[in-house]
Amino acid sequence: MPGAARLLPFLAVTLGLGMFSLMDAAMKSAAILGGVYTALVLRSLLGALLAAPVWLARRKAWPTRDALRVHLVRSAVVTAMAPLFFWGLVRIPMAEAIAISFIAPLIALYFASLLLGEVIRPSAIVASLLGVAGVAVIAGARFGDGGLSGEAGLGIAAILVSAVFYALNLVLQRRQALLASPYEIAVLQNLFVGLFLLPAAPWLAQVPGEAAMRDIVLGAAFAVLALLFLAWGYARAEAQALVPIEYTGFLWAALFGWLWFREPVGWATMAGALLIVAGSWIATRNPAARVNPASTSAS
User: Fold this and answer.
1) Got the DSSP string for 11-68?
2) Residue extents of the structural domains in the chain
């Protein structure tokens, strides 16, 4: 790939991550206006509808039985993960939520050991300790400032639990990527997540207002655009070269959190994010245990 064209995959991934942060902002707004459940169900079904034409146009064959099984399992994990993440996102600033969620690749190393038999190296333990320290810095600063209210504390806890599910999601993503295209994953995962959530509609669904529905549609559109940018970028550059760009997600979250919700970013949040990113960087530098923290279709 000659000259400036080599930069295009990096630009595509950076824009894709920005689109995912816009999706988070739109979903946070929609969840505040119409509830987490309604926003997530409608965004999932709309996302499947928006991505379906691209998948059908590029499809070479229908999904195999093995692929469908992996789609179902990963969708079940996302069904547990996404409501926790967005419920927490409503209660704490976006930059804090994204910083805490960066611990997921570290947890994924242990899932990879448990499920795939990979060896946990000493560097992974050091990386995990840095990640835990980063979360402690963010939560400790809130506690020290008196900002760790019951709602904020529950929000941090929800983000941490969602990170555990996201870590499992990352491990499953490695197998899924071998069986299906990004477009197939986008359609079927969104569809299955929406279907898994639908049975709770009689108890949790609300009729969204015009503003909430606007944000839900925006969230679905941003999610599909993010997937397309990321799929294009990762098809044209090595994952290990793109991993550092994943952490620009924190900068995007800080920007859109401030623009959309006027959320300030404190020094403790930045320091905690640096510790977590340092831990993830140490972990991803180990070729035998590299886990890509990309969120191409996690939520």
Assistant:
1) HHHHHHHHHHHHHHHHHHHHHHHH-HHHHHHHHHHHHHHHHHHHHHHH-SSPPPHHHH
2) 3-289
- Count, in order, helices (H) and strands (E) of the chain: 13, 0
Amino acid at 2: P
| Residues in contact with 12: Cβ distance below 8 Å, sequence separation at least 6, in sequence order | 229, 230, 232, 233, 236
Q: Which of 256, 264, 276 is nearest to 24 (CA)?
A: 256
Instruction: Indicate the pTM of the whole model.
Output: 0.82
* 255 Cβ neighbours under 8 A, 6+ residues apart: 21
Interatomic CA distance for residues 250 and 224, integer angstroms: 20
Q: What is the DSSP letter of 200?
A: G
- Using CA atoms, how far residue 216 sits from 28, 39, 47, 49, 293, in Å, is 10, 6, 10, 13, 25
**If the chain, 299 residues long, is cut into consecutive pieces of 10 residues, what is the mean pLDDT of each piece?**
71 88 96 96 95 89 90 94 96 88 77 72 73 75 63 90 87 76 88 96 94 96 85 71 71 90 82 77 55 45
**CA–CA separation, 239 and 253 (whole Å):** 22
Angle between helices 182-197 and 36-58 (to 10 degrees): 150
> Quick one: which of 176, 173, 168 has its CA closest to 108?
168
CB 242 within 8 A of CB 9: yes
Calculate the alpha carbon distances from 185 to 108, 173, 234, 244 in Å: 20, 10, 15, 24
Buried b (16+ CB within 10 A) or exposed e, 169-195: bbbbbebbeebbbbbbbbbbbbbbbbb
d(CA 23, CA 140) in angstroms, rounded, equals 28
